Amino acid sequence: MNPLLKRPLLRFLKATFLKSLVFSLPVYGALRLVFYGMDFSPLEDLRILCNYIGTGWLLTTLPALAGVPFVKWARLFMKSRVQTSRRGWLQTALVAILLAGFLYSCQAQPTGMQPGTGLVTQWKGITTAKSRVIMNKEVLGHHDIPLGASFEIINTGVKGLVAKGGKVSVGCALTISDSKGKVLMNEPDLFAGADIFDARQLDYLRCTVNTGKPMDWEQEYKVRVRFWDKFGKGVLTNTMTIRIIDLP
After folding, report:
1. Which among 61, 112, 131, 212 counts the fewest CB atoms within 10 Å?
2. Residue 79 is part of which domain span?
């Protein structure tokens, strides 16, 4: 490559990359807060962030991609003499937010939320028609649980489990952690030893959650239930935050 072109190229790539961070990082942070209930692994989060940055980078190079001569665009950009109106910046930011939101939805697993309880349900391979929180045979519309009480997280209309010989096999992991992230309970498989079911009869997945010490009143705890298909790769995850209260 001609040295006279190589330097503007490097400057152009560096400048557009730094500019893309101005859009991508705040948008990623805002959307991650909105969808805080989604359980992504650090690797998944990193992949999504990289996609955001890539999208932002694309937005900053659109003039060049649209056919504007590269050297001319690079010089104009590096000299910073182009006066961009507030409206233009607002439109660019809006496009960045829309694209980032679309990108987030593409990366995220299908998700549902139960109003009131804040129960977030994610699924991949296994689908559910409805997820609910049940206590004392009533559907809850809040997340307040008396200390010592039990409740159930139930997913109905479950489909997608792989059947072998008319049977399906499901695992169920339960994790409860406090507001500081300390794990109070970690059951790797509550269905162990009894995880084979009739494929024609199994249309719901249920997990019973018990509360008690070391939980304490007026404290919040994160409950995560993970069902997985032992004959396939399907996963269904329920996550909610409960607040422990005294008996009413």
Report:
1. 212
2. 3-107
